[in-house]
Recover the amino acids of this structure.
């Protein structure tokens, strides 16, 4: 009922920046019920972990490992969430997944690869 499409991943040198975007589309009733959106990441051989979340009202939450370097924001009119990533480190290399919560339903994007070269 909700499709999430990520964009903006790629290869960057350590210390560089990237901006990820995630646009939600689909059933308008489900989209209007989205209460929170966020970003998670999963590196090879590791569990998926939270990066940052943001509620419809703008409250944010960040993993300790990205605080001060990453900023999550959202445009409710465009049903889009962004992740501005600065001062990237090699350990930030992962597949980044967009997530949204709509009522009791949890939706995921297909993922976008972020690779940071040291």
């Amino acid at each position: 009922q909700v499709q999430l499409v990520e964009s903006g991943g790629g290869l960057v040198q350590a210390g560089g920046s990237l901006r990820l975007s995630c646009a939600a589309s689909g059933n308008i009733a489900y989209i209007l019920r989205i209460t929170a959106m966020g970003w998670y990441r999963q590196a090879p051989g590791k569990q998926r972990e939270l990066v940052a979340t943001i509620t419809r009202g703008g409250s944010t939450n960040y993993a300790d490992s990205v605080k001060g370097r990453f900023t999550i924001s959202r445009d409710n009119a465009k049903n889009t969430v962004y992740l501005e990533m600065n001062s990237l480190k090699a350990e930030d290399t992962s597949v980044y997944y967009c997530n949204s919560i709509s009522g009791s339903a949890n939706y995921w994007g297909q993922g976008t690869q972020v690779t940071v070269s040291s």
Observations:
- The two ends are 40 Å apart (CA to CA).
- The chain has a mean pLDDT of 94.
